[in-house]
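Final report, Chapter 2: Outcomes

The project's central promise was a pipeline that accepts a single protein chain and returns its three-dimensional structure in a standardized token representation, suitable for archiving and comparison. That pipeline is now operational. To close this chapter, we reproduce one record exactly as it appears in the project archive, with the input sequence first and the structure output second.
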Amino acid sequence: MQLTGVIIAGGKSSRMGQDKALLEVAGMTQLERCQRLLREVGCAQIRVSRNADGYISDRLPNAGPLGGLLSVLHHLDTVPQRLVVVPIDMPLLTAAALQQLLDQPGAAYFTGSPLPCVVNYSIELVNYLTQQLCDDSGDRSVRAMLQAMNAQTLAWPYSYQLHNTNTPQQWRRAIEMLGVSL
């Protein structure tokens, strides 16, 4: 089965005050860490939605995670069967959590957290993203996309692994939970 990893790292990091993708944990940036997690679960190709040189920039500015995902879909070398979508700002996320999503036959995400998620690649997905992003009244939420794709919601006993780090305080707390020093 062809798996493609998608890292959503196109945000402005304004609340963090610095680029979240470049924050380091144990000598590895968040971007490198996300790439490693996706390789661990078997992603044959990994694409990064990131408005910076050398990455896939948003085709539609300020369109959020759905805009990043749609931009990535237009830059795939091969058409995957499934996409594993992860945000850049979850330093506690594990390969075991991603594997739990991959073990489901279709689209899946965790209760209370639309990202990370797994979705099946389809023309319906591309059409849905295009429609929502090009319509001023479209629903640009990841949760709405997952509902439209009939995604299964899963419980994850380690919900702390799914916490975003958007501020320096949240980042420090996550690092403390990992038991490493900055």
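Archive annotation: Residues 41 and 99 are 6 Å apart (CA to CA).
This record, like all others produced under the grant, will remain available to the consortium after the project formally closes.
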